[in-house]
Amino acid sequence: MLNKYKAVVAWHARRIQDTSPPAKRRKVSAPTCDTCNATLSRPFVCLSCSFAGCWQSGHVTSHLHETGHSFCVDTRSGSVFCADCDDFICDGTIDAAHLSTVLLIEEQMTRFQVAKRPREPYQPWVPSESEAALLKESTVLPCQGRRGLLNLGQTCFLNVILQCFIHNPLLRNYFLGDRHNTRLCKHTDCTCCEMDSLFSEVYSSNQTPFGPTSFLATTWKVSAEMSGYSQQDAHEFFITALNQIHGTCRGSTNISCNCIIHQTFAGQLQSDVTCERCGNTTSTVDPMLDISLELRGKGGEVGGGENTLAGCLRRFTKPEKLGPKEYSCSKCTKAHEAVKRLSIRKLPPVLSFQFKRFEHKTTSKAVPQKIDTPVRFPATLNMAPYTTLAMNHAGKDGDVSTYPGPEGMYEYDLFAVINHEGQMDNGHYTNFARFRDEWYRFDDDRVTPSNLGACLNSNAYMCFYVKRHLDYKPYMKPTYRVTRDNDIVREMEQEKLKEMARQKEVDDALMATIAGD
Q: Which residue among the candidates 69, 336, 393, 428 is catalytic per the annotation?
């Protein structure tokens, strides 16, 4: 029965992994219900025979009761339904079989665009004899990962960003994996060291609120605009913290950087400007670490009828008319009207969105104000319609409902939300964050259990999404390992030079003694 389960899961995994163009795909009829012949978008398959039926009409459960068969499986989620207990089964063996089968199909069907080689097979970590001996001698400490942060004087802006860093799975794995060791770091005022210490404190057995005094002091030293006890903007501190971590991370560079910040947040925006006279298109690619979204439309109205994250993204990627004074075509060599459109060329593993709620004082606005309009945002987000790849494959009508590649390339899950309460000059920041499958609300030192519904109903200022399926480069050493190996070789060479210098001093002293005699 387990083999039948794996075969059903593999069938569905192959369907969603098919990345060939529609014209080249082999035409396969959609599965239908064996009772009512209705087309099944989510087929349930009996694990004792070849019956496939629909769930909503109850045909698959009727088949189980009539034939005496016990189990059926949802091909999409891999969930197994038991007819005897009239409920779905929660079992670790089934979950492990589903995960291993889907992973195997993804490895078989994924090809890297550059190397043209199959995906590198997943290998679970198996401790060696020495590692197993160390694990036996170690003491297991409970790590909660849910620890409040003390407000050190209008530092709620810092606390919410640190909580989002703490619950970011990529940053968590990096710093808890000892990729940056405070004892071995040679930097002064190192923000990476502060992050390492922060994760050590949060993922410890101590559950009392922690005061990030050292993190705050380091921020003041390296960033003058963030120093002082006045209230700061959480998004500004977010960008400042990313730059500080990048600057003190091992192996960081100014071009094509592969530090943990760029591995986590870095994406690419593409700007296409098309001349309306000759049709010439000029494309420019710029790096991005987050996306700031306008809440006001062209007419100045808030939302424009779409107070949703998807609506803001549609406005962000909507074609914009440029006047003759704003654009000069390189092909026509004359100024003409043009159309400019933004799209996301490269999706980062973690997407950070900021809603522009704060409008500062300008020549057109006499006083600064805050936009309190609620913006709806989803728990799962498909970014395909806003990518350059999908827009290039769209038809003449601009329909991006179909796009190349599996859905896993574009799907993101919400893991943290930052909220701002009050006005610009006297507001307060709080945040929601997901720990495993549970949601919590963080208000400085107060941590309270919450739920996804409360998070989605909150008035968001920033949202953080993590990619459901992460991409990686084939058959390559991670940059932190390359940097570590280079440091070891460099230190060995320095020790060798020092030993040669000491030996030369001894030889010179000996020769001087002989010459004196």
A: 428
